[in-house]
Design a protein that fits this description.
Elements lengths: L3 E5 L5 H10 L3 E5 L10 E4 L4 H10 L2 H10 L3 E5 L1 H6 L2 E2 L12 E4 L9 E6 L9 E6 L3 E5 L4 E5 L5 E6 L2 E4 L10 H10 L7
Parallel strand pairs: 1-2, 1-3, 3-4, 4-12, 5-6
Antiparallel strand pairs: 6-9, 7-8, 10-11, 11-12
The protein binds glutamine.
Length: about 200
């Protein structure tokens, strides 16, 4: 049986995630309404515009449904705007994040001068050397609760990927590179193998 993975398809680059996950053998559902979470092993919240994703998530009743999904053992991975959506607090006043993971996040953390950049960083749980990470108006993690582990950081120590149980968040966009190792890690998490991370 393939893993059933959803990609939250309210806004953003959900199609790129879908393509990678399907190439790895997952059965992928584009999730536009909360009832579509039923039966999924994991959900990806893509990059895009966090204000728009949060607004639409509230409109369709996702906040409670996502908390229920996580309580029932579902895995969730947010990339970039998805990390912002998952946060418990933001340094900026908007949007109000959905509080799915105990992290404090700064939006557009890298400022205008360097609003996009690429770099190679090692990621804990990803074998085979550093990952080429693409940052686009990216957030960063400013603080993390107990039980949240930093699995990747920039050279200056800024945390850019975190994991807690079956939840993970990356400030960069693995779906925009040919390297599928982070998606493979999320599939292992969704399959209930957190020790594989
Ligand atoms: N900084 C954007 C936001 O606040 C996210 C950018 C991205 O997902 N590439 O929504």
């Amino acid at each position: 049986m393939p893993l059933n993975i959803g990609v939250l398809a309210l806004q953003g680059d959900f199609q790129e995630h879908r393509a990678v996950l399907e190439s790895l053998g997952a059965a992928v559902t584009e999730v536009r309404l909360p009832h579509q979470l039923e039966g999924l092993d994991g959900l990806v919240i893509p990059g895009g515009e966090s204000t728009t994703i949060v607004k639409l998530a509230h409109r369709w009743g996702f906040p409670d449904a996502l908390r229920h999904f996580i309580d029932e053992g579902g895995a969730v991975w947010g990339t970039c705007a998805g990390m912002i959506v998952m946060a418990s607090a933001l340094l900026e006043p908007e949007p109000e994040p959905l509080s799915l993971m105990d992290i404090t996040v700064s939006r557009n953390s890298f400022g205008r001068q360097v609003d996009s950049f690429e770099t190679d960083i090692p990621v804990k749980g990803v074998p085979g050397g550093p990952v080429h990470a693409v940052f686009i108006r990216a957030p960063s993690v400013q603080d993390q609760g107990e039980g949240v582990e930093c699995i990747a950081q920039l050279e200056d120590g800024t945390p850019v990927a975190v994991r807690s149980g079956k939840l993970m968040a990356t400030a960069f966009h693995p779906e925009l590179t040919p390297d599928t190792r982070i998606h493979e890690m999320f599939l292992r998490l969704s399959a209930g193998q957190p020790s594989a991370v």
